[in-house]
Structure formats: C-alpha cells, structure tokens
Amino acid sequence: QKEVEQDPGPLSVPEGAIVSLNCTYSNSAFQYFMWYRQYSRKGPELLMYTYSSGNKEDGRFTAQVDKSSKYISLFIRDSQPSDSATYLCAMSPNTNAGKSTFGDGTTLTVKP
Amino acid sequence: NAGVTQTPKFRVLKTGQSMTLLCAQDMNHEYMYWYRQDPGMGLRLIHYSVGEGTTAKGEVPDGYNVSRLKKQNFLLGLESAAPSQTSVYFCAAGSYGYTFGSGTRLTVV
Asked: Are B33 and B92 in contact (CB under 8 A)?
C-alpha cells in the first residue's frame, strides 16, 4: 500500500463549481503538507503549503489538514477553465531532509 | 529570477548511449532532488542532495548517477541508457515546498 493515496480522477466540473481534491496518508510522521498544480507538459508548481493541522486560505484556494484522520483536502472556489490541470498532494516529515512523498495526482478539467 | 533551470528540454538517445542532465538553481537552497515522472506512476525520487558535495539514493536510483560539485548545480547522469529510462525528468530545489524545473523529456530508442 502506498504511503499517500490520491484519487486519480479524472474530475470534470462546470465553470464556477466548487472543487474538492483529497489525499489520505498512512505515515503519522508527516508534518508538512503541500499541494502542487501541474499543467500539461510543465513542471509542478507549489500552490499551498501547510504545517501540521488546520486550514489555510489563499484567494480561491483553501487547504485543510486533518491529522487525526490522516486526510488532507484542497478546495477550489469559483473554478475557472485555467484551473484545468493535474493536482498533486505531497507530504514530508520534520526530518529526513524534508524529502516529500507525492500522491499520483488528480486530473481536473473545468468546462466553460 | 529563473528559479530552477533544466537543460536540455528534449533528448533522444540510442540504447547504450550516455548523457548528463543539468539542473541549476539560483535560490541558494541546500536541498536538491531528481525525479522521474511516468504515466500512472507519479513522481519517483531518483537521487537527492542535502548540500554541496553530498548525494543520496532515492526510490529508483539504479542506472543513474549524480554529482553536486557546486551548491547551485545538480547533475544527473545516465551511463548506458535503456528504453526503460524513457521518461520526463524533473529537478527540484527546496526544503518542504519545492521549486521544480520545467523538465527534460528523454526518449531512449
């Protein structure tokens, strides 16, 4: 079983919808939780970065971490066609050179 | 600021040939990483470095070598390319949230 599980989708929503992307994990040592966005044929781009539990908001994006359930989420409000991409979750322990473990990614399409 | 720059962007190799992929960062990060990304398999760590002169193996190191002679550069070498090494290679720098390069698309025929 993988340390980080992510539903690969694909996920297709109409423009303006609220999108929920999720990951579960098994390693209780993870303390840092990241979300990356990857457009087709591009490198991943860091979207959100959270330490330990709680919520973090940045514009239309909200990241949630529930360490008791080992579950993290990324919400996108008022989704736009430009949000169409693959979203990767990633997690790191406090040590181990910050080496991240990545989910396989969820592909999102926002239709106009 | 360029962030993380990878060269080349594309390359076709014949089986058995060698090549070196170059990663350069201008952010003064200690940690640098090489990943490969294949359809259905996500990002897999090949090798990483926690500082100048240091390297360590990741999840899939076989067939690859790395060097970090200068803090800003991290080189990935393929000594004898195999078709199984056809992939997209990404370099990254940072401690927890990484900055990635734009990738190198390598095809081994």
From this structure: yes
**H-helix or E-strand spanning residue A75:** strand A71-76
A98 contacts A32 by C-beta, under 8 angstroms? yes
Q: What is the mean pLDDT of residues B9-21?
A: 97
Buried (b) or exposed (e) across B16-33, using 16+ Cβ within 10 A? eeebebebbbeeebebbb
What is the biggest distance separating any 2 CA atoms in chain A, rounded to whole angstroms?
A: 43
Domains and CATH numbers, chain A: 4-111 (2.60.40.10)
Which amino acid is present at B9? K
Interface test with A, best of B4, B34, B43, B104 (most A CBs within 10 A): B43
A53: confidence class by pLDDT, cuts 50, 70, 90 = confident
Residues 15-54 of A with CB under 8 A from B: 32, 34, 36, 41-46, 49
Residues shown for chain A: 112
What's the CA gap between B28 and B26, in Å, rounded? 6
Half-sphere exposure of A30 (CA within 13 A, CB side): 29
Q: Which residues in A lie closer than 8 A to residue B43 (C-beta atoms)?
A: 44, 88, 102
B1 pLDDT tier (thresholds 50, 70, 90)? low
Residue for token pair 């201008």 = B26
Cβ contact, residue pair A99, B33, below 8 Å: yes
Which among A58, A48, A50, A56 has a CA at the least distance from the CA of A33?
Answer: A50
